[in-house]
Amino acid sequence: PKIPVVLTIAGSDSGGGAGIQADLRTFAFHCVHGTSAITCVTAQNTLGVVGVEAIPPEVVVAQINAVCDDIGVQSAKTGMLLNKEIIAAVAEQVEALQIPNLVVDPVMVSRTGFQLLDDDAVKNLRNLLIPKAALVTPNRYEAQILSGLPINSLDDMRAASQIIHRNTGVKVVLVKGGGMQGSLRGVDIWFDGHHTETLTTKHVDTKNTHGTGCTLSAAIAANLARGSDLITAVKQAKEYVTNALSYSLAIGKGQGPVGHFFPLLNK
Ligand code: PXL
Question: ATP-binding: is it a keyword of this entry (predicted)?
Answer without folding.
Answer: yes
